[in-house]
Structures are given as C-alpha cells and as structure tokens.
Amino acid sequence: MKRLSRYRRHKAAAPLLLFFALLTVGATFSVASATTSAETTSVDRSVQIEEGRQIFLKGCSSCHGINAEGAQIAPSLIGVGAASVDFQVGTGRMPMADMSTQAMRKDPIYNEEETAALAAYVATLAPGPAIPGESELNFERDGSTAEGGELFRNNCAMCHNFAGQGGALSQGKYAPTLMGVEPKHIYEAMVTGPQSMPVFSDKTITPEEKLSIIKWIKAAEKEPNLGGASLGRVGPVTEGLLGWVLGLGMLIGVAVWLAMKAR
Amino acid sequence: MTVEARLGTVANYVDERTGGAAWMKKNLQKVFPDHWSFLLGEIALYSFVILLLSGTFLTFWFDPSQREVIYEGSYEPLEGIKMSAAYASALHISFEVRGGLLMRQIHHWAALIFMAAIVAHMMRVFFTGAFRKPREGNWIIGIGLLTLGIVEGFLGYSLPDDLLSGTGIRIAEAIIQAIPVVGSYLAYFAFGGAFPGEAFIPRIYTVHVLLLPGAFLALITVHLMLVWYQKHTQFPGPGRTEKNVVGYPLMPTYMAKAGGFFFIVFGVTAFLAAVASINPIWLYGPYTPGQISAGSQPDWYMGWLDGLVRMAPPIETHAFGHTISWNILIPGLIIPGILFTGMALYPFIESWITGDKREHHLLDRPRNAPNRTALGAMSLTFVMVTLINGGNDIIATHFDLSINQIMWGTRFGVLILPPLAFVITKRLCLSLQRADRELVLHGRETGTLLRLPHGEFVEVHEPISPEKAYFLTSHEQAPALELPEVDGRGVKRAGVLRNKLRSRMSVANAEAIPKVSANDLKEIEHH
Amino acid sequence: MSNEIEAIKDPGLPAHVHRKADTDPKAARRAERQVATMFLVSAFGTLLLIFSFFFIPDDVFVFIPIMGNQNAHQLGLGLGMAISLFFIGMGAIHWAKTLMPDTEVVAQRHEFRSPDSDRKDFVSAVKEGAAASGLGRRSLIKRSLGAALGLSALSPLILLRDLGPLPGKELEKTTWKTGTYLVTDPGNRRIKASDLEVGAVAQVLPEIADPEHRKLSDIAKDAVLLIRLRPQEFNLESDRLAMTHDGIIAFSKICSHMGCAVALYEQQTKHLLCPCHQSTFDVTRAAKVIFGPSARPLPQLDITIDDAGYLVARQPFSEPVGPSFWERNSQ
Q1: What's the CATH code, domain A37-131?
Q2: Strand order in the sheet with C280-282
Q3: Which letter, b or e, does each residue of A41-68 get, where b requires 16 or more Cβ atoms within 10 Å of its Cβ?
C-alpha cells in the first residue's frame, strides 16, 4: 500500500482512478440488472400458459391492463397472437424502457422460455398469428433472392431504405434497421405489423414471398461493400460530406503545402 | 545533344512555321503569384479533365437505352429482374469490366470534388473581390460554369437509371410540368411522351457527353484565357502594387507545381474511389415509378434545392380551370433564378454601390470589405440551412430527431439565420480591423512582463516588421458616395429613390475602422 | 480623407531567403533523393495496379480496420492507381519547392485601355465598314434581312416538334376503369377484401391483359395503395365513405406534389408519408395534407367487391393523379 501511495500525486493518478471507478460502477450495474436465471418449466402447455400469465401480471399488466384489454398508454393485446409477443419481447422492445416516441430494439429482458410462456398466454386470449416454425422459415431453400429484392423494394424500402438501413417516419418515429435481425423476427414483424409498421397479409405477400424477402435481406446484410468502405448505405448525404471533408480537405492540405516556401 | 540543344531545335522548328518565338518566350516566362487559395480553381479544372478521361472510358461500355432487358449478369440478387439496358450496362461496368467500378467511382467522386472546388473557388474570388473590373466577364462565365455543372452532374448520375436517380428525374419532370401554360407540353417533348417513357435517358446522354462538355470546354477555355491575358490577381503586400505581378515564372516552377498538382488531384480522387463506396446502383435496384427508398435525395450540389422544395408552404392557386403550383415554382425555379441572376450581376451591383470604376488587381483581405464579406456569409448560411433540410430524414434517423422539427426549424432558420449571419460577420470584420490597427500601432503582444524601475508592470510589445505594417495598411478605405439630392443649381436630381438607396448602401459599405497612417505611427513614436 | 493622411510606405519586396538546398550541396542531394523516392513510390503504385488487374481474382476479400471486408482486386486497383498518380505529383511539387528557382520575379502589368489614337482608329474603322455595307441607308435590305433571319430562327424550333406527342388528355387518364380488378404488385394476383387484416396495406395495380409487359409509363399513373382500417376510424364525407369498402380505402400511390411513390403508411397514426419532401397525408380524412409542401390530397379510388369478393374499381379516378399542371382543373 505504501508503494502505491507514493504515486498519489502522479499526474495520471486522477484520470486512472476515475477510470477504475467508472468501470466498477458500470460492472456492478450490469450485474445487478442482469436477468435472473430461468426456472425450468415443464413442457406441459397449461403450466406454460399459467407461467406466462404470471409473468404478464408482473411485467406487462401495469401498462396493458390486468386482462390485456389495453389502456391509454398501451394497446390491447387481445388477438395480437403469439407472433406479436415473440417479436416484441424477443427483440427486447417490450417491456418498453421509457415512454419515448417508439419502442427500441434492445437486449431482451426475458429469456427464451419466459418469452415462449408469455406468447402462449397471449395466444389464449383470442386467435391471432402464430409463431412460425423452423420448417416454415427455411428461406435458403424456399426463397428467391432476386424476387425478394423486387418485393422488398416494392413493400419495404420506402420505410426501411433500399438496403434495409432504416429510415425516418414522421414526428421522430423511425423504421429501424433490418441488419442483424433474426429471420423469425422479420417474419413476425411482417405478419403482425408492430407499432407504426403495417400488416402484410399472407394473401398479398404469400409466406413464400415473405421468405424471399428475408433471403434478400440476409443477402444484403452479408454482401460486402464492393467499391470501398460503405458510407452507411444511405445515399448522397454521406457521400457529399466525405467529398467535402476528405476530398477537398486533402486537396486543400496539399495546396497549402505546395504554396509554402521550402526551408 | 544536350537537353537544352534539343529543346532549342524544337523551338526553332515551331517558330519557322508559326513565327511564335517571341510569343512563346513571353508566355513561358509569365509570372504567377503564389497562394494556396489560388489553386482552388485548378482543382476544379483538373477534376474536369479527370471527368473527361474517366467519362470517356465509361462511354465504351455504357448503353444509353431504356429498352427493357432481363438481367443475365453476375450479380445474383438481380438475376432475372426486368430493367433498362442502361441500368444493365452500368451493372456490367461495375461487376464484369475490370477497373469498371473503379472508373465509375472515380467519375462520380471527381464530379463531387469538381462542384465542391467550383464553390470553394467562387467563394475565394468573391471574398477577395477578384470579380471587380476587369474581371466581371470572367465572374459571369464562372457562374455559368457553376450552373452548368449542377445540371451536368444531375444528368450524369441519372444515366444509370437506378431507383434513386430515377426518382430525381421524376422530380425534374414535375418541375417542368408545373410551368404555367407550356409545362405539360415541355414535359412531353422532353420525355417523348408520358413519364418516364423511353426517350429521356438517350437524350440526356447526348446532353451529358456531347453538348455540355462542349460548352464546358468553350467556357473554361475563355475563362482561362482571360486569367492568362489579364494576369492573375494577387494579395496585397510589400513590393506588390496594382501595376505589377509578383510570383514565379511558368517555366519551370509553375509547370512543375501546377502539373504536379494535376496528379495530386487525380491521385486523391482515385484514393477516394479506392476506399469509399459511392453510388452502389446494384443496391438501389432499377427505376420503376411504383417504388421509392426512404432517404431519397439528390447529390449535395442540388441538396439545397431539395431542402427549399421540402420547406415550401403548400400553396397552389386554382382559377379559371387552371392550376399554378407555387409550392414547386417558387423553390424550384423562381428562387434559384433570382439567386443565380443576382450572383452573376454582383460585380455590377457592387460597383454601383461603391461608384468604383477603376481596375483592381490587388485583392481585398475579406475583413477590409466587411459588407461584402457579410453578404457572402449570409449566402453561405442560406445554403447551409437549405442543405440541412435537404437531408432532414438522414439527420433525423442518425441524431434521433424529428423531420417535422427540422423542417420547421429550417423554415424559420432560412429567414432568420442569414440576416443574423450578416450582422455577426460584419461586426467580426470590424473587430478584426480594430485588431489590425492595434497591431500596427502597438506591436505584437509577447506575453513577457517587464517590471519598470518605479514598480509598474508592463507587457512587452514587439513592433511588427515594416513588411507586415504595410500589409495591414495598404488597403483602400474609400468614403461613401456623395449623391446630393439637388445639383449645383438647386434642381432636384432624377432617380431620387434610387440614389437614396444607393447612398444608404454606400454608407453601409464604407463603414470601417480607420487604418493606421504614417502620421499615427509618428505620433506613437513621440509618445 | 486618405489623401491628406500619409499612408505607411511600401518597404519593397523582402530580402530573398535561401533554402537549404540552395546553399548546401548535401541538402540539395537529399532533396533530389527525396524527389526520386517519391517517383519510385509512384512506380510501385503502377506495379500494384497491374498486379491487381491480372493476378488478384475478384472474389478475394481482405479485412481492413475501419473499412471492414474489402474486395482485394478493387482495393489493389484503386490504391495502385492512387499511389501511382499521387506520388508523381508529390515528386514534381517537392522538386519545384526545393530545387527549382524560388526567387520572386516581378512582372509589370500593362493598362488594358488602348491609346486614344487606337481607339479612335477602331471606332472609325467600324463606322466606315458599317457605312460601306450600306445597311444604314438601305432600309429595304435591313427590313427584309430582319424578317428572313427572324423567320429562319423558327425552323429549328419547328424541326423539334416531333420530340414528343402533345399531351392531350393523357395526363388526366389512367388504366383504371369501371370493373378493373385490383391485383398485387408484384404478383398480379386478384385480392379479396377478406385477404386484408385491419392495419394491412397492399401495393396494387390494375389488372391488364398482359401483366408481364406493363409499361412503366402506365405504372407511373396506375400505382395504388390499398389500406385497411376499422370503418369507425374513418372521418369522411358520405360520398368518400361510399368509395371505401368495409374499412378498405384505396389511394393513388403517386404523390400529388411531385410524383414520388407515397407508401410509408404509419399504422398507428394512420398517416401516409412521402419520403421525397415529407408531405404527410391523413388516411382517415381522405388523404388530406397535414404537413409538408403538397397542396392537394391524394386522389381516392372508388372500390367495391364483385360477387366472389374480389376488389374492383367502381369507376376511374375522378381527378388526374400525380403532380399538378396548368390545365388541371381542381374543384
């Protein structure tokens, strides 16, 4: 300890201490707010539904109502189906952290079993879209990338941008980026129409067509930027900015050097 | 034979056929003043050359046809998709032609840098007053080049017929269509029928690779010849007068520097094209009027126009069975028309205000022309505000803002901020003049404190060099125009209102901190 | 005022300061080596370009920090070209700066204004030439020349007539007629009212005989957006309500402002947003404009269902779709 105290007036002491303090606080916070480990649930459906109801009462009813009938601040969940719950809870949007313009994607609070239980419970309230099964989501086999691109540009690009990077809606709302989203969640979003997003019925965009869209989105996600670093895939705004800052900037830099007298 | 001897033989050969020895000697020894800001126009010039070279490369593979084809190239996500031959050929250049994508990107980056350099160069010329007599004509040519550049760039990125640029063409068609009386006819003639038709891309191809480059070549040649013949302006300083040019000769110094700078511009453009992806048309998809992407805007040099159109109030008049779309005409045609006409006529406006009809070859330091500098700052602020609104959706998504807020903010901002910028800039210029005066009168503050024998602390000031003193005081401070309302015989002059306006503007223009004179310095010495 | 006050005198050009390379031969040789090195780097760049062009296949990717996965072929070509050009420039400029003469030279400007005698001669030459042409005296020639030249200017304009057809009434018509079925875009499948859930949208086009060969010029007027709300959510006049079917409402997808596709439907607010200039339309009030530069609502398509439940248009659009034009007679 005496050895350390010799450095207490070192000029790096204060910043270093601050850094470690912040690290400790941050680590403590993330540990304390971590999800509690799940209790093992039996495969029994009624037990799952009851577990879902319990979780619902604890974590959702304060906004959505005791019977999920909805309230001023949250819509009714009757008839939204298991797919809605799987999407909203699975992407971490629900429970909503703060009452800002819209629910953001974030780390889910509930683990997979809890999410499944919630979904099972909400499904009992009224018939609604079901969670798509593994076999229904084989987009690699059942989808077509090119057709998916056409469908994407017709139905999705106007909100989510041509490369799925997301876009602005009115009053501060936004269509989020589609990069890094699980295929299941993309499918569920199309079917359930979360928040501002409209519903895309299975008759107007068939399940195969939905899989094609997912296949295209995944291909776009994996596609490397061919001509250099991507500038966000948002178009001319970032390109113009870089042209001025890096392009003209470098050239003015050389011009200044050119006109300077040599030593 | 030595190099010198060989060169001598060549010179003889040419002279015996042209009689140009004296002329060539004079021009090889032509003097060019040296300042980095004089190279901005060169960046634009070299970018133009790069555009010609890279553009020619692209024409060897580009097919300017809107004929519908089914894609059969190597880019899987578009396999079997219907598209125009133009789009398909642009994809071919990007994916199958080696060096094709690099050339496409060099071409587009060069276009962005070309326009940026033109604007930067125009600002330099404006803020230093280089547009004054005898260079008014060159200024007008410059504004013409700026305008043509905007059109050429727009047509250029519309050629691949992708979803983003096709949307831009739709907007252009709507502007044409909105013109009263003849709008729908002009639109049908331009597009060969209804939008989008199949005639537009081939036609703009002709404009983009033949007509406008030809116009550019002609205008740039005249622009350069005028600079060459009238000699370049120079900043004031010791040894520099209105009647000389101080600098370095063309051969060898300027040939090496300017020639080398061409390679620099080309190299930087190629560097951008190597490391930064631009206009990835394969991601946009082919143009069809039923599709659109979030975050659609034109290239930056038209972004301010888009911003103006976005913020326009929704005004249309319907009368006697006809519609006039003020919400399109005002931001799309009328305001740009007024702006560019005003810009082109500015040299004449300024000489009207100042009454100054002399030649000027020495540049103004911006602070010494506070009104002009403030006006320039005002225009820049206007462009920045409209540019921000042009990208309001991208800004909203990246900074968690609302497009509605940005729209309202810029609607008010475009009216409030430019005058504010004018006032602030003018005051800043006058403060800088004051600081210059202090510097000349009292010298540079060294930060060293000296304690005098009787106990007083003073800061040591180092007198500035006579060169610097001259630099800071060689500018002219012309008084305001005298425009009496009645002439010598007591008769009221014609054009009273005009003269009142002129007089007021002249007074405002002449506001300055009086510069230090030799008398002032003498007084200080005796102090 | 400035005449009476004596200005600070011009001290003349400052004394020339020699560069290291001017006086020290070692420094000069060092500068020479630096220039040569730059030219050599440029040569390396060219070699990199040539190597990348022929020997790097275009499916190899390398990871570059900040930039991510980059295509090696493209990167090699681009960087090779950039280096090869940039360092020629650097070498030339460094050469000029360090080794070429940098003594400032003074050249005199000459006044542009010619001597008065030259000006007089010029003016009289022009006057004499003009008089010699006889144009001033011979008014018959002058007038007929004016008429001929003026008229001849018409020819190029007339020759451009076939650039395009006259618009006629085309801007006011679309493919939609009474009984036209609504089909999905893409896919061209007929849609039943029961296919749409509340909150759903569908991109729609009119059914035509040859859907594989739709013309873009037709799509540019025919594109329609179908939206389903709950009937009680509408706030419409009775005549507009009659154009809906059981909560399903159809609008032209072509923006009434400048023609972009308006299809950003916000399910919760029931607003349609156009991404081009942010015009916002309220679906519950027949696409009334609530924000942005558009001056007119989107035209509404009158829809109903046939016996089998498929959606059809009951009549064509009652007004022209898309951007305004002079002849547009808005009620």
Answers
A1: 1.10.760.10
A2: C264-266, C271-273, C280-282, C288-291
A3: eeeeeeebbebbbebbeebbbebbbeeb
- The backbone region for B113, taken as left when phi is positive above 0, alpha when psi lies in -120 to 50, beta otherwise, is alpha
Neighbours of chain A (3+ CB pairs under 8 A): B, C
Q: Give the ipTM.
A: 0.93
Interface check for A76 against chain C (CB to CB < 8 A): the answer is no
pLDDT tens column, A213-241? 999 999 999 999 999 999 999 999 999 99
Residue B73 to chain A, least CA–CA distance (Å) = 12
Q: Which two tokens stand for residue C299?
A: 């035209």
Q: Name all chains with 3 or more CB-CB pairs below 8 Å to chain C.
A: A, B
Number of residues assigned to chain A: 263
What CATH number has the domain spanning B33-236+245-286? 1.20.810.10
Contacts of B271 in chain C (CB under 8 A): 78-79, 82, 86
- How many folded domains does chain C comprise? 2
Q: Most B CBs within 10 Å: which of A251, A256, A257, as the mutation test of the B interface?
A: A251
Chain C environment of A159 (Cβ under 8 Å): 264
What is the chain C residue with the closest CA to B515? C7
Could you tell me which residues come within 8 angstroms of residue C280 by beta carbon, excluding any fewer than 6 positions away? Answer: A170, C271, C272, C273, C274, C289, C290, C291, C292
Query: How does DSSP assign B214-235, residue by residue?
Result: HHHHHHHHHHHHHHHHH---B-
In this prediction, residue C123 has a pLDDT band, given cuts at 50, 70 and 90, of very high
Q: State the Cα torsion A88-A144-B100-C79 to the nearest 10°.
A: 40
A255 contacts in chain B (CB < 8 Å): 36-37, 39-40, 43, 261
Element (H, E) at A9: none
Q: Minimum mean pLDDT among A58-72, A79-93, B489-503: which range?
A: B489-503
Q: Determine whether the interchain pair C259/B470 forms a contact, defined as Cβ–Cβ distance below 8 Å.
A: no
Distance CA B264, CA B104 (A): 19
CA neighbor of B373 nearest in space, from B503, B498, B223, B512: B512
CATH number of A132-223: 1.10.760.10
Helix (H, G, I), strand (E, B) or coil at C216: helix
Domain around C228 = 173-313
